[in-house]
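INFO batch 0412 | record 1 of 1 | parsing
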Amino acid sequence: MALSQHVSLQGLCVLLLGTMVGGQALELRLKDGAHRCEGRVEAKYKGEWGTVYAEYWPTTSAEVVCRHLECGVAIGAPRGSYFGPRLGPIWFLYDSCESKDVESSLKLYMCVYMDFKNYNDTYTHDQDVGAVCSGSVRLIGGDRPCSGHVEVLSGKAWIPVSDGNFTLPTAQVICAQLGCGKAVSVLGHVPFRESDGQVWAEEFRCAGEEPELRVCPRVPCPGGMCHHSGAAQVVCSAYSEVRLMTNGSSQCEGQVEMNISGRWRALCASHWSLANANVVCRQLGCGVAISTPRGLHLVGRDDQISTTRFHCLGTESFLWSCPVTALGGSDCSHGNMASVICSGNQTQVLHQCSDSLSEPTGSAASEKSAPYCSDSRQLRLVDGGGPCAGRVEILDQGSWGTICDDGWDLDDAHVVCRQLGCGEALNATRSAHFGAGSGPIWLVDLNCTGNESHVWRCPSRGWGQHDCRHKEDAGVICSDFLALRMVSEDQQCAGWLEVFYNGTWGSVCRSPMEDITVSMICRQLDCGDSGSLNSSFALREGSRPRWVDGIQCRNTDTSLWQCPSDPWNYNSCSPKEEAYISCADSKQLRLVDGGGPCSGRVEILDHGSWGTICDNGWDLDDARVVCRHLGCGDALNATGSAHFGAGSGPIWLDTLDCTGKESHVWRCPFKGWGLHNCSHEEDAGVVCSGFVRLVGDNGPCSGRVEVHPGEDWISVSDGNFTLPTAQVICAELGCGEAVSVLGHELFRESDSRVWAEEFRCEGAEPKLQFCPRVPCPGGTCQHSGAAQLVCSVYSEVRLMTNGSSQCEGQVEMNISGRWRALCASHWSLANANVVCRQLGCGVAISTPGGPHLVEGGDQISTVRFHCSGAESFLWSCPVTALGGPDCSYGNTASVICSGNQTQVLPQCNDSVSEPAGSAASEESAPYCSDSRQLRLVDGGGPCAGRVEILDQGSWGTICDDGWDLDDARVVCRQLGCGEALNATGSAHFGAGSGPIWMDDLNCTGKESHVWRCPSRGWGRHDCRHKEDAGVICSEFLALRMVSEDQQCAGWLEVFYNGTWGSVCRSPMEDITVSMICRQLGCGDSGSLNSSVALREGSRPRWVDGIQCQRADTSLWQCPSDPWNYNSCSPKEEAYISCAERSPKSCPAAAPCTDREKLRLRGGDSACSGRVEVWHGGSWGTVCDDSWSLAEAEVVCQQLGCGPALEAARAAAFGPGNESIWLDEVRCGGRESSLWDCAAEPWGQSDCKHEEDAGVRCSGARTSLPPTTAGTRPASNPLPGIFSLPWVLCLILGTLLFLVLVVLVTQVLRWRAERRAFSSYEDALAEAVYEELDYLVSQKEGLLDSPGFLSDGEDNDDSRSAPAPDQRSDAPGEDYDDAEEIPVPGAPPASHMSEEEVLPVKEDEMRSQTGSSLFIFGEEADPGEGEDSPWLLQGNRGDPGYDDVELGAPGRSTVTFP
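INFO prediction complete | emitting tokens
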């Protein structure tokens, strides 16, 4: 049973205060703490001190120790040898109610015993208990632990001490008791706090030598009330007095010495500045600093030299009040000491500093010994995490201002760093690297030499004259800039301790590192108030600097930088002495459920519990603190309302009010820790930019490397950019492994600066920010361009046979770190050829099928690659992972490579097709040396679109003559896209460009390549690109949401195997939902809605188990369960609501045309009524202002209702009841759509529904075809062709047109004949008609002959055919898109060979079919022979007549002999 269950606080007091051991009072002490009232608990028995072990050591037990020692109250009860182990006996404090008759055991109280037998053999000193007591006095409210107003403990209450008669000796006693050095300042007149209910009623009369305040004499104040003007305030410091020594005497010039922790130490000249010297002169009453000459040190021993560095502005009154750095420092054992020559007269007037003239290079004024002029300006660096890095700011005339970065370089930065005593400049940052400042911009176009004493004495444009903005503020990073971190794979507050010095991260050595130093480190990293060194870790891998050893922090130090240590050294200790620290009881921060480490719900770990933040008052300033703390760049979004899902556990923070510059979110003002009135439905979240990103066109996992250290993204150069660095970036982004590191990419015009450091990652770091960095020489990295990186979850590939990897065998790929066999389904020779090339195994010989060699079905991946065959790596091919066949009992992909990269394969033969069923027509056919490639374009994915073939550097198409499913099957199988669902024609996916490679294909469906099918011949055709062939394969996928009124919310459906079907929602995480919303153009996030009622109707439920990864760029790349018609139950169909919801752009679910967004309502037919248009997800009306027949004509034509008869106004067909979408519509009457007419902006009108416009059209409305051939939808194209009624209507209309043409031609001919033969009517009529009769019958016989328009091989025409792309009859790219209409009696153009295309004169035009409808010409030439149209050619030997040329009206001519 626990000790606390037996011992009350009062009883334990009796135990410790009244127990006698051997006739003497029990003695206790606290050892090895910072002062008398904290340390390891020790008890004395028979003259020997021993430590105490207890199974249970609560704070109440430590409280009794504190009271026994008159040390106030207990504020901690550490165990685990927190104050270090010691040698000697271990006494055992235990509880037992059994009678003990042992000499060494002493019954202390009831059932509590102290056994004073040495338990060294049973327990170890690693479990020694300790106590931390408050003491009887404290300093509170100051800016450091050793400053503040004085309070003393009375009972359990802290009572302030008044400043009445409060003396410096009393302050000295307090500082010494607290281990805070010496009192350097005693202040009064500090108002008491509102919570101060009473004031200490005694005056302390210390002499200054007392060990503690409690032993000082005290005098009661008269009447119990001390005279005062406020609370007494004390500042203690290890740095107190200062003096200038020359030949042993102190005066106003000489070597600078300071009393540091009670010892006089000379200060090192390294980093000593004129600003520091001026403070020394002022503190000594010696006026101002004249110069700081250097000289050999006058001290006798090296240990009397301090390397402490002060960073004064020059206006401070005391040197101890300046920022100080003691960690590391230069080795001054053989260097110079700091010296000062003061004016000696506080009223001396120094010469005025001049802005107009810069210091001459090398002049006395430009050296460190330059006189300090009477310049009130001050210099500082801000927002850089310390006094030696940040934005450069200058104080002048009471205002802090900045420096513009025009011309800013390392020479300018050198002056700043030296002026501030911060060593050398490492980097001159630009573009507000440390954030944009405010106030004036004092300097621009600086041109320092680097030797000036002050930055404002460099040449510049002029004080306050500039043309800059604060986004161009300059900054510096000096060599003395320090930063601290812990490096661990999964812990924020435990890991290898590293310090950033001289531009590089390096280790910290652990000897000697006492508890006070470890506590200082934990506090500085916001990881609690205590911690421990862990020496049981194995040696750390890799090499790095081990910067510093011998760190010994003191109570007076407020940060690790103020702790004295050995000097900086690249190898300060051996690798086994690197410090690994574990901090206790620390707060940690993380982001969860956001798909990555830099976005998600904000959670804080405190006392072992992860809790959330309420979104009351949550904004971007709060989010910036979170992002900066996590090293995730800038905040992009501060989300509320549990955007990333509701958390659990406590809600730690509410009503935050951060400024955006705090180091940790719990340091912002808030309601109170754990105080709130929220639920987890109000959990706050953030989206951070991240420290690193890849910028490109192919998703977040490939592109140019950029880092975000502060305000902007900065490109990283390719100079010394290594593969291990790339691996760290890919892992941090959740993008798999680095598969390619590229350089030589030109920087963008917007890249105003380039990252000025080189990353030296080892490859195992959890984030890029943890990698060692080396500044580039001169602040500019050597490079040939921006570093570019490609990450992929698909990395290495291998061929396995009997456990060994070689150039043939089963195909296996490393997918997300696991080797997986690939399924043989959809595996193609093109894929195999890429594998062979990637492995250096030549080319693919065959792809034999066989049973899988893996042990479990879960090791087989159904990922499908769609390679063209020319890629260098399999991961660079288009990939589909969604769905896939069930390969658990199928075959795995195998490849046999040539094994010789120089092997010459047989040449592919175009002239002879593969016999059906031959070996060459199977997938295992040998891969011949054919450089052609195949692809499908403009279909929304790799498995649908226009068929294109690459040959001789040009992509060309296939003509749709004879194009059918057998041809399409070859294309789909060749591309690994499954089976063919549709063989589209008439440029269904849009017209291509370039050559037309094939025509009249006649595949059997089993050929290995489409170009090995029988055809007219390579490049031979009589087609145009409006006849381009396309395919839709079974692996073609499309995505949509189905909803009545929303475009970005609805039931999720996928188009697979030719049918729309549902998607199942289990398990569908946020990253998957976000992927879906992005793919549909509906924002970057969304949520599953499980409260929607069951969906009506039945449909396939195609796929379940979708699990997207960050590396995926579309839903098709996300792994899932195999395709299954019933993948889940109806209640598991996914309904998704995306964050950026927008109303439906169409009245129906599918994409629509302008015609479908227009309708007529309230009329007596489909072609009359009130005009209504679809906009913003709803129907609305049109106002009748400016409404006329011109607008009505456009509406009627758009609806296919013929000409307009009436433009109705004043709600003639009844008023509408929705929005009035359009007003002041002004059409010309010939627009194809009402949307092409001018109008007021949508929804802006001054009308009422009594002014609704309407139309009455002349005709009946024609039906709308579902999809227009030759038109490609904007997204997710679906299978569709001309409807049969539409085609029949088109044909009938064309025939009617032909009849009219023939009639007009006959009339014209009749008129011409009447005019030509009017004078010869009686004599020649009969002869002419006989000749015309003969001519017509001769032409009819020629048209009917079987040899005419036969294949080229049977044609006797001896003329050579023109090249495929050089035909004389080839139409231009601006040809009319009207459908080809066959002329009765003439064969269709698709049956004509290239050689049989009819020649035409330059000034004549033929129809697209080659038959003449109208012939325009001046005069027929009977002597042209073959150059004349055949219809006009007569027999050269025929006497007595010429042909009649048919012409347009008014241009007919007749030629006579």
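INFO post-check: The first strand starts at residue 20 and ends at 21.
INFO record closed
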